[in-house]
Amino acid sequence: MNVMGIIFANDGAIGGLTDKRTTASVPFGGRYRQVDFHLSNMTAAGIRHIGIISRHNYQSLMHHIGSGEEWGLELGEGGLEFLTPYAMSTTDNYRGKLETLYSAMDFLEFGPQDDYVVMTGSAILCNLDMRRLVDAHIASGKDITVVTKAGIANGVKQLDLAIKLDDKGQITDIAVDYAAPAGYLASMDVFVLSKAWLITQVKECIAHNLYHMDRDLVLGLWQKKAVSINVYQFDGVAMYNESVEDYFRNSLALIDQDVRHDMFNGYHPIYTKVRDRVPSYYGEACEIDNCIVADGCMLDGAAKNSVLFRQVTISEGAEVENCVIMNDSVVGEGAQIKYVILDKDVTVRPGAVLIGTPKNPIVIKRGEIV
Q: Which of 146, 145, 128 is nearest to 43 (CA)?
C-alpha cells in the first residue's frame, strides 16, 4: 500500500491552550500530545512518508516529535517532514487548507511511488485503523473518502462538515459550518484521496481563487456533480477537542476505563515521546480517588476525578476535584481548585481558591502564578 500522510498541525484553537503551541502539540491524557494519535494511526497502517504542516508556534511540536523515532519514522526526505509553508510566504493570511497544500506542492509531488494520500487535522482524536480505511476507499472506487461519526450532530454544535445519508447510504445533503440536527454525520476531518487527483484539484481550485477544503473541494464539487464521495463511518470513540469545554470534558472522560482502552489500545497502541520519570509518591495523608496519575508526581493532598500529568505536586491540605493539571504544576498547601485546567509549570499559591464550572472551566496559562 503506497500511501503518504499529511497532518495539519494548526487545525483549530483550544482557547489559551493554543496561544503558544499548535493544536497538534496540546498535551492530552496525562502524558501524550494530540499529534500522537494521528502519527500512531498512520504508522500502524504502514504509512512512513508523512508531512506535518504547521503555520506558527511549532517549536513545541518539533521538540516533542524529534526525529520521529518513537513512531518508527525517519526525519528527512522520504520519511517524516515538517512543512512550514508560511515561514517563507509573503503573507501571513491563512485562507484554507487548499492554499496550504498548494504551498507544500513540492512535498506532494515528491515520491512517485505514493498512490494515495491520507489527510487529517489535529483537533479530533481517535484510534483509527487506517489500513482498513484506505482499503475501503480503494474498494469504493470514489474520488474521495470522508471519515464520519454518528451521534455528534445535535443541532447546537457547529460542524465543519456535515453529511446526511438516505436509507440506501447515498448522500442527500452536505453542509459546511452548520449546526446540523441529529441524523447528520459529522466529519472527523480525515480524508483519503488519490495523490494525482488531489494535486490536480488543488491546482484547479487555487487557479479559481478557491481555498477551503470542506466548502470548495468537497461541497463545491459535490454540488456540481464533479466528485464522487465515499462516506466511511467510524464506530469507535471520537473526541472532538474543538473548544476548551470539549477538551475538558474529553480529558475527564478518559478516567472511564472503557473509554481509555478504546482510545489508547483500540486497533493499536498510541505511542508518544519517551520521558522516563521516577514513580509517583503518595504521602501518608493523601487521598487520590478516580484519577489518572502520570509518573513523577508528589501527592500529599487530595485529588478526585482528575487527570494529573507528569511531575505534578499536590501539597498537604490541598483539594483538587474535576481538574486537568499538566506537567510540573504545583498546587500549594490548603489550596482548593475545582473545574480547572492548569497548563504546564503553573503554581497555585497556598490557600488559593479557583472554582470553575463543567461548561466554563478556568484555564491558567503556562508558567503563571495564581
A: 128
